[in-house]
From TrEMBL:
Pfam families recorded: PNGase_F-II_N
InterPro entries: GLPGLI
Family annotation (NCBIfam families): GLPGLI
Protein name: GLPGLI family protein
Length: 229
């Protein structure tokens, strides 16, 4: 009985230590193809976005590093053996942060795009993950596969997650979380991948401040109604 108690004590210490550290990394969001008929991406639209990532004390924040201005871009669509020139608007934010508080279940998206601030606050989505008997190595981490459907914020996306049990943090990119390990990569509808690299633990705790800007905090539903006006 004493041996069991000692083992449980050390497990509790290890769990507490994992949450008393800071995890930092770099996340890359890579567009793979467009949606619907517009599957060919121009060079500007296909350019990845890079984010910094910090996790500490059950909170995480993901901040945009790379900044690309919105622009009108030209691409070509091939139909019936002919190429047709088409123009499209490539809209990119100048600032973007994803914030999660796993304890209070708070999720925020704070952004500035085309000189307009956005400040969305929601309850963190609880995903219904299905574990799949597949594995692969991503950036040096042995990962297991899980799938779900993301219906949050008027979405209907097929999600594939690759998570590693080597990192005892139940978090991941953007709003994704809740697997028995850290989500190294997310695949969204075969259109976009979100992949972590350069993940490093440090012993100190890092204070993570909740992001804000000049816009009032709105739910996604209220923001959508306001944008439609």
């Amino acid at each position: 009985m004493k041996i069991k108690l000692v083992i449980l004590f050390f497990l509790a210490v290890l769990i507490n230590q994992s949450y008393s550290q800071t995890l930092k990394g770099i996340l890359t969001e890579t567009p793979l193809k467009g949606i619907g008929d517009e599957t060919n991406l121009s060079k500007k639209a296909a350019k990845p976005m890079t984010f910094s990532y910090v996790f500490s004390e059950k909170k995480s924040i993901q901040n945009l590093i790379s900044i690309e201005k919105s622009a009108i871009d030209t691409t070509y669509i091939e139909k019936y053996g002919k190429k047709y020139e088409t123009t499209s608007s490539v809209s990119r934010p100048t600032s973007l942060a994803y914030y999660k508080d796993l304890e209070t279940k708070k999720y925020k998206v704070v952004a500035t795009q085309e000189a307009k601030d956005v400040n969305i606050i929601e309850k963190l989505t609880k995903f219904d993950w299905r574990l799949i008997n597949e594995s692969k190595t991503i950036n040096g981490y042995a990962c297991k596969k899980a799938t779900t459907t993301n219906t949050a914020y008027n979405s209907n996306q097929s999600i594939v997650a690759w998570f590693t049990e080597a990192i005892p943090v139940n978090d991941g990119p953007a709003q994704y979380h809740g697997l028995p390990g850290f989500i190294i990569q997310i695949e969204i509808n075969d259109n976009t991948t979100l992949t972590f690299d350069k993940l490093v633990f440090s012993k100190e705790n890092t204070a993570i401040a909740e992001p804000n800007n000049s816009a009032p905090e709105l739910s996604f539903s209220d923001y959508s109604k306001q944008s439609a006006k």
